[in-house]
């Protein structure tokens, strides 16, 4: 008979995270074969009937997950001196207009970033009180993440192929698509010239019609920093880098610097797997 610690089994069954199992067990809210367990460290048969009490289920269901459209130059966690934390943007003033809840993130305890999105990247960053979300986003090898990479200079087919091969070597699945004929909006109208990066931003100067846009979908434990390194090895010079999707949660048209509450996390993220097309919905359809 295989046995394991109760906290590990709770995380494996998707009931709660290991840290949450410790707290629930202290409160007697984890039932093993119908009886409350006294500790998350006890050894339990792997095929034992384990469930949360009704009270613990309500506590778990009340936990909040937020999605922030992180701008560049903000750190997701552990910021270097002089670098602001993305968490500072989680204030009522930055709530998306389509978000119908009135949560104040400053009053939500144990609201942590689910993973790391490097300072030079923008896009989706999840914050959650639910420990399962962080475990899924940072450790699930089958969870899909989609990125949008705008290159400085046209990316050749050989570079795209090299990127594909490089990602396949470190990911369980990788798909790289090159979008043709992309011209930045800033190049279409003279009025948008002021929005172009200034020289002090240390970005390469890019001329019209010298952009390529690459969509990268990966499944695996790969951070944005590693993805940047693979792009560099393929000879791709990055102009901008953003994350569009995690599992079934899509960034959609959420404005930069704003946040919203994500509902249906179980269906959109925790139960999401690579080949499942269910749950890929637009941003506005799952905001409360």
TrEMBL record:
Keyword RNA-binding: yes
Occurrences of domain RNA-binding S4 (ranges): 5-44
Organism: Durusdinium trenchii
InterPro entries on file: PsdUridine_synth_cat_dom_sf, RsuA_PseudoU_synthase, S4_RNA-bd
Keywords of the record: RNA-binding
PROSITE patterns documented for this protein: S4
Protein name: RNA-binding S4 domain-containing protein
Family matches, as Pfam families: S4 (PF01479)
